[in-house]
């Protein structure tokens, strides 16, 4: 299953098919963008084995420059994505794909490979992939957030911030210790 009403916060059990869905979409994006896509990564909860998640595939593409990436917008829109130019997350361009009105299936983030956004997304994903107990904590937190805020148009923006900040600190400590 993939796709969820864009304002819904329902969390579903992990599905191994999410990996194949990412690969299929990454292939389409590689074909459309060619060498403009320096790297394509599966991020978010659907990229973490056994992680319950919103059934939306999150994709991150490294591009040489966000300033130049505006030229890529028509190529991405031809694949069914809608560019969201008023996104408030720094260091990225955000796109959403819907398989029917209001039912999102994919989120796409363009960013530069040296950006904090790129580094943090990969660090968070990779840490949860290798630390089952922290991943279990994250599942519990996401389910609690979904219960409290599901199907409302209001979400506490700090609901996950403390957890994400802690995981990024742990990932940073682990990376520093392995040098």
Features:
single chain, 179 residues, alpha+beta, Beta Polymerase, domain 2, six-stranded mixed sheet, 42% helix, 19% strand, globular
General description of the model:
The protein is α+β, with helices and mostly antiparallel strands and 179 residues long. It has a single domain, classed as 2-Layer Sandwich (Beta Polymerase, domain 2). The protein is built from six helices and six strands, in the order E-H-E-E-H-H-E-E-E-H-H-H. Strands 1, 2, 3, 4, 5 and 6 form a six-stranded mixed sheet that branches. A hairpin with an 8-residue loop joins strand 4 (81-84) and strand 5 (93-100). Helix 4 (116-130) packs across helix 6. The chain is globular, with a radius of gyration of 16 Å. The protein starts with a strand and ends with a helix. The model has no long low-confidence stretch (mean pLDDT 93).
Strand and helix layout:
Blueprint: E1 4-5, H1 17-33, E2 39-43, E3 57-62, H2 66-69, H3 73-77, E4 81-84, E5 93-100, E6 103-111, H4 116-130, H5 132-149, H6 161-177
Parallel strand pairs: 3-6
Antiparallel strand pairs: 1-6, 2-3, 4-5, 5-6
Count the domains.
1
Radius of gyration, CA atoms, in whole angstroms: 16 Å
The CATH C-level class name: Alpha Beta
Estimated structural class: alpha+beta
For the record, give the distance between the C-alpha atoms at the N and C termini, rounded to a whole number: 41 Å
Tell me, briefly, the overall form: globular
CATH architecture: 2-Layer Sandwich
CATH superfamily: Beta Polymerase, domain 2
Poorly predicted tracts of residues = none
Q: Which sequence of SSEs, written as H and E, runs from N to C?
A: EHEEHHEEEHHH
Give me the CATH fold name. Beta Polymerase, domain 2
Question: Mind describing the biggest β-sheet?
Answer: 6 strands, mixed
Mean pLDDT value:
93
Strand percentage, roughly?
Answer: 15-25%
Q: What is the overall number of helices? A: 6
């Amino acid at each position: 299953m993939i796709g969820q009403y864009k304002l819904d916060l329902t969390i579903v059990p992990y599905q191994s098919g999410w990996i194949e869905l990412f690969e299929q979409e990454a292939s389409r994006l590689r074909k459309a963008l060619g060498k403009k896509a320096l790297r394509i990564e599966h991020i978010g909860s659907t990229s973490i084995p056994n992680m319950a998640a919103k059934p939306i595939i999150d994709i991150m593409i490294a591009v040489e420059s966000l300033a130049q990436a505006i030229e890529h917008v028509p190529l991405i829109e031809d694949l069914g994505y809608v560019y969201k130019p008023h996104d408030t997350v720094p260091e990225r361009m955000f796109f959403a794909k819907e398989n029917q009105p209001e039912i999102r299936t994919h989120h796409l983030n363009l960013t530069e490979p040296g950006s904090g956004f790129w580094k943090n997304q990969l660090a968070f994903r990779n840490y949860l992939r290798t630390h089952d107990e922290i991943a279990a904590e994250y599942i519990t937190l996401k389910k609690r957030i979904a219960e409290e805020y599901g199907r409302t148009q209001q979400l506490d923006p700090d609901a996950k911030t403390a957890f994400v900040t802690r995981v990024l600190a742990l990932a940073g400590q682990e990376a520093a210790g392995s040098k």
